[in-house]
Structures are given as structure tokens and as C-alpha cells.
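Table 4 source record.
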Amino acid sequence: MTDTRRAIAGAASLGGPTTAVIVVLALLTTIAPLATDAYLPGFPRMSEDLGVSASSIQLTLTTFMVGLALGQLVIGSLSDRFGRRRPLLIGSAACAISSALCAVAPSIGVLSGLRLVQGFSGAAGIVLGRAVISDRARGVAAARAFGVLMVIGGVGPVLAPLIGGGVIAVAGWRGVFWALAVLSGAMFVGVVLMVHESLPPERRHGGGLRAMLGLARGVLSEPRFLAYGGGFCLGFCTLFAYIAASPFVIQRVLGLSSGWYALDFAVNSSGLVLVNALNTRLLRRRSPRALLASGLSAQVAFTGMLLAVVAAGVTAAAPILVLLFLSVSCFGFLMANATALALDAVREAAGTGSALIGSVQFGLGALVAPLVGLAGEDTAVPMAVAMFVSCAAALTCVLVVARR
């Protein structure tokens, strides 16, 4: 039996969701990373085809992130009132339709608007995947289930740039959105067949918008949620600064081809997945909080070295790519641990808590995307600054809780 299968069995034995549900939820959570990563190798070509600047192309990432942020906030809160399954079904169907429309968008303005819709609907898989696990498990069991969810879901980001690069070579960047439409449709079928309601009626919160705002206020008054959720969101900015800037840094600053970029992106994503799997194993002996603090400390050190290298004017590929790999891989210690710790603090409103994490997470990501491109396409300094500042702020959030 593989380590991943052992982890799934362990999570289930501790009260977690079944293997089939974890797999479907993991695939649902890959929609957003795929919609983010698969078309990255085509950024330079999109810029030429649509006749716009690099920052305009990065704006399609921004609108997608805004959609993810708003979608998680709305869908997660509604799921605390109406349950998890119905919003998952609606979100999957809407994501398939909006992905198909992105494939035929005639201009950057229309594409950016459709990416907003795609992000809003695709948010259902992320926010409700977390909520379903929180409904069914807690503590170490939840952390292990989240870890397995992210290990399986991490295959998407690993393969996305490679698949995207191949699709772009054959069908252009629009072909990527057709592929996303097909995948979203398949996920709709998966929800129909495998995912049952995890929030019973007696645990739902009624009362409309006022009650939802009251839940959000209660969640935000919990210090542990603020610290661990804030650490997760700030840590995500580190990853997203890399995602938004790396196509231009690697292809323009370092002078590598789009094929090499896709390969490097896949290698870095593999490192993140492997560290996530290592985190799942280490949870047998160490607490989620200890692993979270250790991972963030290492990430601060690596991004600090990266900043020093690029600020010194180094453009050699080897040191920059190695430090990027190490910095991105450390994120594997953040995802499952911070999510489990934050949602465990607000179990009675897990949907709202998950929504707030996702909303702030992708809202901050939307801000980072255009910022790392403001200095142009010929420098890696803005990316390195954003990565270092973000993970240092995340570590500060976590250490405040540890001190208390």
C-alpha cells in the first residue's frame, strides 16, 4: 500500500471522509490551480495575439483571483445555511460553461470578465472541499485528511504547465480553456455520483444575510482562526507572487524557453507535493503547529536568500531556480496544517471560516499579480520582495499564537 493510500485509510479510521469522497474533493480543488497554471506558458503568446502588455495579461489572473475570493465568501457562507452538495453541483456546472466561453473570448476585456465568472464558480470546489472535511473530521485526523486532499490535488499544478504547454502548441492558448470546460463537466458528474451531503439540517444556520454576517463576525473574533488563517493567506501570497511573475522571470530574465519554463514549474510543483506528503507522514510524530512554524521559518530563509541574489544583479539560472524550488516546496508545510488549525477553531461555522480564508487568500493573490509586473518584464526583484515579505508576515502571525 502506498503512503498516500495509508494516509487516506488513517484519516478515514480517525473519522475522516471516505477514500472516494477525498479523491473527488481533491479533483474539485484542482480546477482553480489548473485554471491558474495551465495557461501560464502561453502568456507571451497571449500578449502578442491580443495586442496587450504583460501586465494586461496578468490582469486575467487578477480577475480570476477576485472571482475566487468573492465566490468562496458567498458560496461558503451559503453552504452553512443550505448544505454543501447543492452549491457544489451549481458551481461545477457554472465553471464548465464559463470555461467554454473563455475559449471564444474576442478581447482581453471580455476574457478578463469571463475569468471573474470562472473564478467565482470554481470557488465552490475549494471552499466546500475544505468544509466537507471539517464536517467529518477534526484535529490530527483533519490535518491528515487535508494533507491527502492537497497531495492528490497537487498533481494538477504539477501537470498543468506541461499539459498546457502541449495543448498550446497544438491548439493555442484557447484550447486550454476548452480542456478546462471538459474537466469541470467531469467534476459535476463526480459530485452527482460520489459526494453526499455532509452538513445535517440540525447543524445549519438559517436567517439570511444578517445571520451570515453574524457568523462571519463570530469567526473573525476567534484569535486562533485569525492567526492561522492569516498565516495561510499571507503564505499563499508567497506562492502567488511566484506564479504570477515566473513566466516572465524564467523566459525573459533567465532566457529559457517556454518548454523549459513548463518543466521547471512542474518540478517546483512536484517539490511542493512531496513536502506535503512528507508533512502528512510527520504528523504521526509532530503537531500541526510545530510543522507549520518550521516550514515557514525555512521559507523565510530561502526567500531571503533569493532576494539577496536577484538584488545583487545575478541572472544565472542555476542559483535562482534552486532557491525558487526550495521556497515553493516549503509551502507544503503550510497548506494542510494552517487550514486544519484555523477551521478547528471555528468548527460550528466551518463553511464560513473556509470562505473567509479563501476570500482573503485569493483577494491578496489578486493584489500581488499586477504588483510583481509593475517594474516590467526584465527584473526578478519585485517577485523576490513579494515572496520574502509575504512569508515573513505569515510566520509572524503563527509565532504570535505560539507565544500565547
